[in-house]
Amino acid sequence: MSADSNSNYQTLVKHFQSISHFEHLSALGDWDQATMMPNGGGEARGAAMAELAKHIHSLKTAPMLAGTIAQAQEQVLTAEQQANLREINYQFLQANAVPGDLVEAKTKAAYHCEQAWREQRKNNDWQGFKPNLEQLMDLVKEEAAIRAEILNVSPYDALLDKFEPGMTTASIDSIFTQVKSWLPELIQQVQHKQASEPKYTIPPASAESQALLGREVMQILGFDFNHGRLDISNHPFCGGVASDVRLTTRYDEADFTSGLMGIVHETGHAKYEQGLPIAWRGQPAGLARSMALHESQSLFCEMQVGRGSGFLKLIQPHLKGLLGCDLSHEKLNNIYTRVTPGHIRVDADEVTYPCHILLRFEAEKALVSGELAVADLPDFWSSQMQSLLGINTDGDYKNGCMQDIHWAVGELGYFPSYTLGAMYAAQFKQAMESQIGSVETLINNGRLGDVMHWLQTHVWSQGSLLEIDELMRQATGETLNPAHFKRHLENRYL
Amino acid sequence: MSADSNSNYQTLVKHFQSISHFEHLSALGDWDQATMMPNGGGEARGAAMAELAKHIHSLKTAPMLAGTIAQAQEQVLTAEQQANLREINYQFLQANAVPGDLVEAKTKAAYHCEQAWREQRKNNDWQGFKPNLEQLMDLVKEEAAIRAEILNVSPYDALLDKFEPGMTTASIDSIFTQVKSWLPELIQQVQHKQASEPKYTIPPASAESQALLGREVMQILGFDFNHGRLDISNHPFCGGVASDVRLTTRYDEADFTSGLMGIVHETGHAKYEQGLPIAWRGQPAGLARSMALHESQSLFCEMQVGRGSGFLKLIQPHLKGLLGCDLSHEKLNNIYTRVTPGHIRVDADEVTYPCHILLRFEAEKALVSGELAVADLPDFWSSQMQSLLGINTDGDYKNGCMQDIHWAVGELGYFPSYTLGAMYAAQFKQAMESQIGSVETLINNGRLGDVMHWLQTHVWSQGSLLEIDELMRQATGETLNPAHFKRHLENRYL
Question: Where are the transmembrane segments (chains A, B) (predicted)?
Fold first, then answer.
């Protein structure tokens, strides 16, 4: 390897650009599988996706990388190039931790499990789902054990690290223990306060009109339809690539409010993706910072903006025009801030939501450590739901441990990101308001764009150029501080 | 390379299985780009598809292949394995003919050209399209020249060979010269005969109701919706993979007849794909035999079955139910067998259709040889349309040389397959009828399934296990004989 002083770094840039092209195809395959693909296409797709995953893995573990990275680290690079090199190295280490055969086996098992889950969930078929999940969980544990040994952390920490670089079980335990100390009482206080409030009837709305409304609301939030789409899937998600972001949702014709806020949530993810630094497209430094930060953007959209009265006032005429919905923005605000313990995480209100995460965090830790067998998951679920939210889920698997896609595709370690994201979102709002004024006032004055611009400047355009603690310090003056989340809930709900 | 006697062949099988997985992703990328992708996603998609094309090319030209194929040819193999090895070798030779950089450059240029063409075609923007086509045509000519030298044939022959293994310009010239000797007179005779027939008004129909009708008609033809979909694109096509066939069409709300027959046509392609031998999925022997044979199946569906009175009688109640269309099957038959020279190939009737191909065949030969410059294409087009069909296309590029997607994606050498396909279709019908009786009678007796079963047995299930001449001999008792096509037109139209 001779050549000019910049050659090692440039070799890495080219190599990771190439990887990003295959990841583009992987994102497309995932999106299509969830939105468009007929069931009969699943087997061949699963095989193709497994082959692709193996290929991407082989590119990320190419023998030349270790040496090239080491030599690039000796080069004179700009601060941004150094950040990109740090992220390249992180991806290399993550990929190198797991053998290609295991990647392929897990991809195949995940496709098989998720394909079957789609029907099994509808049919409340735990007995059908269980063996698939058991098989997949064995592979997840194998992966966790291998990663743990290499990173010298616990197996569950090794999974967390895939989504939240540097985050540990101990940190989350500490944060979540605090939450447990005040949240149950807060839920009771809010429920008591809301008990006397009137309940409004939600008018029915066809899926077609909800989809039209969804697109108008996305436009209000500044979603760029030249670089993305909205479709339907079993489980709402934001996929695709930064230049072509694919949102999905699902519509309940008896209650449009859930699908609508689902779209607002996913649009928050999409805005992050569409706002990532264009100069770094295709490079690791150009990717979103972490999953919790991704969730912070969707939750900022959904919770900080979407459930506020300013935004609801803004979209109310669209609800009237497209759905014929006569509810005033005050009534909408009441509906969207009503706290009611329920079965479904994605339908949960802002206050009870963390309980769904506390449960899953405990379950995942125990599943990965082996303390909890897959067969015992429904009982564990029911007892936790009982103690956290007073809900019995015995026998109701579809609204219990089969409700989420995450485990059906073998993604453990992701769930904590949701509540960490809610905390980051509250912290961003506090910082934003201290800098540019109240979000509600801005929206009421037709300046939702200023809110988005702040996020664009401080979060989206940063990609992964900064590590998360530094990003938070530059944006908000401090690292993650869960107190903002508690204060936000108290301000809004008490 | 030691190991058991079967190892070289098995190595090839595994290698081509892997290639088929990447081709699955390529088919998905193409379909999505034509049906779902927003314009702004084009650049990144183009780069990803070019990377993928390059990777597939590198797999098909892997250094180990030459030796492994040579050694496998010495092995004791079944007749079917030998056929697969022959097709593996054909793919290897085809891929090896062209350098990877050229494949990548052409893929990129084709994506760029086709993306822009979508809008340019709508706007009749020849000046915008011309430089893109010129750039792409240079790459096509470069490819043709390289292939020609290696295969020791003319450049255009080298392109034909990609779609019709073994077919030559000389053979097609000879067949098309015959067609030219009788077709113009036949068109005049038919027009004279039809001049006194009444013309029926086609009722308007919404795109939504046409899509519902299309799905019902596909079901009647036995399309398996567990292994495929119907969507909308600028240019109708049949894509995807055998286990997940993706049809597209476009709807004209003022005239549903064109979109409907377009769906019938593409369903013919789809039936071929869905009927390919399952035991050979993912192997070259399991692919469709040639593009002309593919077109023979779509044209069998559209022309031999679709425009016959038995089929129209079968679907008439669906037209009434979904579109409120009161036209009797006799009137539909009249509409679907009306001969009217027109601008658009895909809307052409069965009799004038070959003229559209004769024109394109002459244009392609001249473009590839350099006798015709891209800049002169519109004039060439207009003069040929004038002499073949009496139509002036001066200044009407969107309905002239910009109407098809083929050149916009750099696919030259494909067009002759349409008319060769019509000839194969007529020959299949003649053979089928001599074996199981009249297609019209079968359909009238509710036995459309028997017609499909014959095709399944003699064509679809054969994949590429036989070479085309042998397939035709086994199915029809002779190799391609254009006389059947002439007889079919005379029987139906005179």
Answer: none
User: Residue B85 belongs to what H/E stretch?
Assistant: helix B79-96
Q: What is the pLDDT of residues B257-273, one digit of tens each?
A: 999 999 999 999 999 99
Where along chain B do its domains lie?
Answer: 7-96
Q: Give yes or no for A207 touching B (CB within 8 A).
A: no
What's at A160, amino acid-wise? L
Residue B202 DSSP code: P
Contact present, A235 and A34 (Cβ < 8 Å)? yes
User: Most distant CA pair in chain A: distance in Å?
Assistant: 76
Strand partners of residue B244: B241
Do residues A132 and A112 make contact, with C-beta atoms less than 8 angstroms apart?
yes
Residue A1 has pLDDT above 60, yes or no: no
CB atoms within 10 A of CB A179: 19
Maximum separation of any 2 CA atoms in chain B, in Å: 77
Neighbouring CB atoms inside 10 A of A63's CB total 8
Per-residue tokens: A394: 């015995």
> What is the amino acid identity at position A318?
H
The HSE-up count of residue A5 (CA atoms within 13 Å, CB side) is 4
Q: Residue A236: phi, psi to the nearest 5?
A: -55, 140
Q: How many residues does chain B have?
A: 494
At A308, give phi and psi (nearest 5°). -80, 155
**Sheet of B244-249, strand order:** B228-232, B244-249, B238-241
The structure tokens 């893109």 sit at B132
* Beta-bridge partner residues of A22: none
Mean pLDDT of A21-35: 97
Question: Nearest-CA neighbor of B356 among B306, B406, B415, B410?
Answer: B415
- Per-residue HEC secondary structure of B284-312 comes to HHHCCCCHHHHHHHHHHHHHHHHCCHHHH
d(CA B314, CA B220) in angstroms, rounded, equals 9
Residue count of chain A: 494
Which residues in chain B land under pLDDT 70? 1-6
Window 13-32 of A, Cβ < 8 Å to B = 18, 21-22, 24-25, 28-29, 32
Measured between alpha carbons, how far is residue A61 from residues A39, A151, A162, B443 in Å? 33, 16, 16, 59
ipTM at complex level = 0.91
> A122 at the B interface (CB within 8 A)?
no
Residue reference for tokens 């694919």: A246
CB contact under 8 A, B28 and A24: no
Rounded distance between C-alpha atoms, residue A463 and residue A282, angstroms: 11
**Tokens of residue B490, six digits:** 């005379």
Position B1 scores a pLDDT of 38
Contacts of A491 (CB under 8 A, 6+ apart): none
Confirm if A210 and A225 have CB atoms less than 8 A apart.
Answer: no
Q: Which fold has domain A124-205+272-494?
A: Neurolysin; domain 3 (1.10.1370)
pLDDT tens digits for range A383-398: 999 999 999 999 999 9
Closest CA to A260 of A273, A246, A243, A247: A247
Whether the predicted pLDDT of A160 surpasses 80? yes
Rg (alpha carbons) of chain B, rounded to whole number:
22
* Chain B residue with Cα closest to A39: B226
Across the interface, whether the CB atoms of B44 and A226 are under 8 A apart is answered: no
